[in-house]
Amino acid sequence: MKIVFLTPPAKNWLFPPSGIAYLTSFLNKNGHEAIIVEGNNKTLNDLIQAVGRIKPDIAGISMDTSSRFLCLELAKKIKTIFNIPIILWGPHPTLMPDQLLKNYPFIDYLVRNEVEYSCLNLLNALENGKNLDKIKGISYKKDKQIIHNERTDPIIDLDNLPFPEYKFFDLKGYSKNPENPPELKDYPVGSIISSRGCPYHCTFCSTSHLWGHKIRFRTPKNVVDEIELLYFKYGTRYIV
């Protein structure tokens, strides 16, 4: 399937979102055509026009709580104009699946927690017309009832994931953020996630809800290989 992934409109984000880039590369490695349209320094209309050019079978939007209203507006416009299925994932859908599915009928599916395998299995099922009840980590409506399938299993060996798909990002577009070192404002910006999970229970943070309390590390070599990729292929000199 051809799927477009979008981030909501924003001004001068601190760093490119690695989560959506991991998901894109993982799906592309496993037989789908996934494309990212980033919202950094773009308008809502820019994103809608991009979806029109790409003509995807399905659209996915990365949502956190602070961006939820922009994400919902974007999802509603895509559904209204293109009438394609909408997937949401991220911290807010993981924590508030009932609220989203109950109140926003233009949302078709939520992918909770760790997204790679859940999203792959969901796309495979939709492509082949198969039942969704065995797919871990997704929420959806069936016969007007909200269904939450069981939580997906955490990915233990993070080194098995392909590196994030950076080619869809304007990495230099993140360098103007005032939090970045001013002497590096002319260089592309990268971001790296070296582990997933957190053993703590901070009430203000969604990390442990999203990725669980068991911390999982990438190997040092795997992280350094990604640093070299950003440095030599994309010209990055500042990595978050």
Question: Any overview of this molecule?
Answer:
The structure is a single chain. The model has no long low-confidence stretch (mean pLDDT 93). The chain contains eight helices and eleven strands. It has a seven-stranded mixed beta sheet with strand order 2-1-3-4-5-6-7, sandwiched between helices. It has a two-stranded parallel sheet with strand order 8-11. It has a two-stranded antiparallel ribbon with strand order 9-10. The protein has helices at 18-29, 44-54, 68-82, 91-95, 97-103, 116-128, 207-211, 220-234, and strands at residues 2-6, 33-37, 58-62, 86-89, 109-111, 138-142, 145-148, 189-190, 195-196, 216-217, 238-239. The protein is globular, with a radius of gyration of 18 Å. Helix 2 (44-54) packs parallel to helix 3. It has 240 residues and is an alpha/beta fold.
> What is the residue-mean pLDDT, rounded to a whole number?
93
Give the number of helices: 8
**Main sheet summary:** 7 strands, mixed
Q: How far do the termini sit from each other?
A: 32 Å
Strand percentage, roughly?
Answer: 15-25%
Number of strand elements:
11
- Which structural class fits the helix and strand makeup? alpha/beta
Order of helix and strand elements from N to C terminus: EHEHEHEHHEHEEEEHEHE
The low-confidence parts are none
Strand numbers in spatial order across the main sheet = 2-1-3-4-5-6-7
Which shape, going by the Cα principal axes? Answer: globular
